[in-house]
Amino acid sequence: MNHTHYLGGIARRGSISRIDGEEWGWIGAQHELFLRGASTCAQMFKWDGIALLLRGYARADAGPLDLPQIARTLHDEYRQTGELAVDTLEGAFTVALLDSRAERVLLYRNLIGTGFTYYRVTPQSLVFAGNLTELLPLVPEARPNRDVLPSYFLYRCVPGRETLFEGIERLLPGEQLEWEGGQWRRFQRHSFATLRSTPIAARDALEQTDATMTAILRDVEAYRPNSANLLSGGVDSSYIQAIYNQEIARGPELPPSYCIAVDHPMTWIDTDYAITASMAIGTRHMLAPADGPYIGYLNETLAATAEPLNHVQSAYFASLARVMAEDGIRAGLCGEGADSLFGVGLANKLHNAATVERLMPVPPLRWLASGAARLVGWDSLRRTLDRAGKRYEETDPDHPINQVACFTDRQAVIRCFGEEAVLQAEAKRRALVDQYEAGSDPLDRLHAQGFLGEAMDSAGLWATLFQRAGVDLLCPFLDSRMIRLALNLPASVRYTYRKPKALLKAALAQRVTPEIAYRVKLGFGQPIFEWLRPGGQLSGPVSRLGNHGFLAPGAVGGPTWFSYSALCYDLWHRQFIERRSLPVETPQPSEMSAA
User: What's the CA gap between 260 and 262, in Å, rounded?
Assistant: First the structure.
């Protein structure tokens, strides 16, 4: 099963080949416009000379979710003003409007939007798609974007709008792109600053969090009835499940929940974590086995998305989506984004540094204490003392803003690309925080970096994999209403001292047992380093890595995150630059088992 996402664009007459199976097309005086969409992830609306595609869900008031009415309102406002009237819309959505009379195309993605929209723009054309693999046939001689390789090897993805392909970019959250008459412009229409409004009182935080999540899940259920949660057992997915069970689910049967299950001693504890949460909350939990060779899942994911994997577990999402589709599930719910909104673990380092600054306001005193800590081998305390007074010095590679969502061997990246390239890559990722007007507070900036440099990329990649199987993947924490809530919380509530996600845990504890809400968080790891070692199932592909003109001698040594990233890049290069077919793993849905 392979569901088309959407594919569209505008081009000078005769400059690109006709698109097979287009659902809307128009030949104007100078340009041709076309649009093809699929109902699994996007709805197309057509009027005389105008086509509008709406991906995801959006609402403008407190009434029932009504996407056709939203589309009609956008159309009518555009007819009157020539603009997209999206300022009052909430949800998670992307809009594409094609105007045949003006020979004009508008693309907009809200904060966060559902999935990616890729595009390539030239003076002759604008082409866009919901899946990078569907755009590539319209981009002849696609070449690797070597300028972003330091970023890729630092973060296992390319943060921001650029991709691994030269000239192909992603529409960023809150961004609008317009193309008309060979001229185009791109601008940041919405940012975090536009979502900041009346501060929420600390005493109201719990109630408003519950109310916001409930409203979002009601919209999700209206948009995609028969949804199921990806229940890992962590506080994020457990909170979604608890509200879904108590406020949304109907009927006598337990709601279903799903998780991936890899049969390995390292992952057994993760499966047990999910099952115990399922039993406490009350779901019919289903395990989707992923026991084939990892290389098959990895190749399939790369072939399906043309994007690198920023998480090892991402390789299994296509298989999980097929399992859920076979069960008739129309949408998966995912807890991605909660850390970036309500507390990443690295925030503790900033809390500790601020405490030391208050206790030791004089720098020489901190220097003496740091030296003493070094002498007795208290490295953790020494690093905290050294960080005190430097919470705003983001150019320091050890600053938490540079460490969030960063799993790599930095020295290996420096050996391959040079220190200056690494510093530029780190600065480029930090620039996203300023682009989105995150403010100056180190905690705000740290969490914005996690959101912009990891959460939105993970959500987009996973949504692509799910939608290819005909299933939407929706992230309630990445709905604009939840982002608005988090941005207007008091810092003491949003970033509780040394207690990441304290607000979510308290909200969950009100609905389930405190043992589930406050239990130790797991890392949800995979035995990837075991597989990368000599004799492991990935050692063969690693031994055959190409140099690609940048791998320094010894850069790919033992099993590290750098060697994993090098493997992913090598396989990507073979598939999309060298055009080689690689074996994939496609387990059958019948392999699923109930917990």
Answer: 7
Give the DSSP letter of residue 147: G
- pLDDT exceeding 70 applies to what percent of the chain? 95
Assess contact for 133 and 303: CB atoms under 8 A. yes
Chain centre to alpha carbon of residue 64: 28
pLDDT tens digits for range 434-455: 999 999 999 999 999 999 999 9
Residue 427: how many other CB atoms lie within 10 Å: 12
Helices (H), 174-234: 192-195, 205-223
Question: Do the bridges between strand 472-474 and strand 593-594 make them parallel or antiparallel, or are there none, so unpaired?
Answer: unpaired
Please, which residues have CB within 8 angstroms of residue 64's CB and are 6 or more apart in sequence? 222
With a cut of 80, say whether residue 40 has pLDDT above it.
no
Rounded-to-integer distance, Cα 295 and Cα 67, Å: 40
| Across 146-173, average pLDDT | 96
State the pLDDT at residue 592.
Answer: 47
Q: In what order do the strands lie in the sheet with 284-289?
A: 472-474, 331-333, 227-230, 256-261, 284-289, 593-594
162 contacts 176 by C-beta, under 8 angstroms = no
Helix runs in 473-578, H state only: 480-487, 491-494, 502-509, 514-518, 528-532, 539-543, 561-576
Question: How far is the first Cα of the chain from the last one, in angstroms, to the nearest whole number?
Answer: 26
- Secondary structure tally for the chain: helices H, strands E: 25, 18
User: Which structure tokens are listed for 413?
Assistant: 């990246």
213 forms beta bridges with none
**Has this prediction a pTM greater than 0.90?**
yes
**pLDDT category, 229, cuts 50, 70, 90?**
very high
Q: Using 50, 70 and 90 to split pLDDT, how confident is the model at 28?
A: confident
